[in-house]
Design goal:
Strand order of the largest sheet: 3-2-1-4-5-10-9-6-7-8
Largest sheet: 10 strands, mixed
Structural class: alpha/beta
Order of helices and strands: EHEHEHEHEEHEHEHEHE
Strand content: 15-25%
Oligomer: single chain
Number of strands: 10
Distance between the termini: 18 Å
Shape: elongated
Number of helices: 8
């Protein structure tokens, strides 16, 4: 059995979620790069909120005459309709822009669609036909000064099960990959995916294991190296002591990698506390795209 099939839907498309944030260009270019490497179809998705952001409605329950209240309510309905039409037109322009970026940067033609509702719900619904998702680290309403992640990103990470590439703010052609490895089933599948997938063909790979070394971990690290070398990769293995969060973040900078591959949030409460906190920390601090595996 090919263990990578549970991570990559062979034959599925690359689906990139875009909004009007500064990440849209980077998402478009990483999505086009991924589709080119995977020889996969590319589609862009823009999701409109069910309730567009707008000022709070005034309280009309006071002593206004009935006809005045009705007139004001009618005006508010018209404003809502106008906002909806403007949001749709803006979405169409955005999708046209990212399709152009994909075509001009990597020669990839792309389809696009626009939907109303929740981004995470839309991605889960479309997931059966998806090989990989691409999304920006922060959306158009994120507070960049706070350093926090976008409000929708964590919900998406916890909802989808296909590989999810979280794009950095600037695009850089990937040449060197860091795999965060702990010997678990998920990270072993991650190593097998990196080894076999055309997404990483020809790229140098660094395998990082954090924590105190023991014979079991050393054996797992040797297995990772042999698996990657068996598929023609140049491999460097690192075993570093220290806290997982800081070790991974430091290695990204010190190894000069262009993409980080790691496991995402787990399902159990205890695993969420451990893996979830590491995932969040790395996503928040990393300046390179992160490919998350479940």
């Amino acid at each position: 059995m090919n263990t990578t099939t549970s991570l990559l839907n062979i034959g599925g498309r690359v689906l990139a979620a875009v909004d009007e944030s500064v990440y849209s260009t980077s998402v478009a270019r990483y999505a086009a790069w991924s589709a080119l490497r995977l020889d996969a179809a590319l589609e862009f998705l823009h999701v409109l909120d069910r309730q567009p952001t707008q000022p709070g409605r005034p309280d009309l329950s006071g002593n206004l005459a009935l006809d005045t209240r009705e007139q004001l309510l009618a005006q508010l309905v018209q404003l809502d309709e106008q906002r909806g039409k403007l949001a749709q037109e803006s979405g169409r322009l955005l999708l046209r822009q990212v399709r152009t970026i994909a075509q001009e940067s990597h020669g990839i033609p792309a389809e696009s669609r626009m939907r109303h509702g929740s981004l995470s719900e839309a991605l889960v619904e479309l997931e059966p036909d998806v090989r990989m998702f691409v999304i920006g680290k922060r959306g158009e309403h994120a507070d960049f000064d706070s350093g926090h992640l976008g409000s929708q990103l964590e919900r998406v990470v916890r909802s989808v099960h296909r590989p999810l590439l979280v794009a950095s703010r600037e695009f850089k052609e990937p040449r060197r990959v860091l795999v965060a490895f702990d010997g678990s089933a998920t990270t072993r599948k991650g190593v097998e995916m990196v080894a076999a997938s055309p997404l990483f063909r020809g790229l140098d790979v660094v395998v990082l294991m954090a924590g105190d070394a023991n014979s079991e971990q050393n054996a797992a690290l040797r297995w990772a190296e042999e698996t990657l070398r068996g598929h023609g990769h140049q491999v460097a293995c690192r075993h570093r002591s220290g806290a997982v969060n800081e070790t991974i973040s430091a290695a990204v900078e010190q190894e000069h990698v262009d993409v980080l591959v790691m496991g995402a949030y787990g399902h159990s409460r205890i695993r969420n506390m451990i893996v979830g906190s590491t995932t969040t920390h790395v996503l928040r601090t990393s300046h390179v795209p992160v490919l998350l595996l479940r």
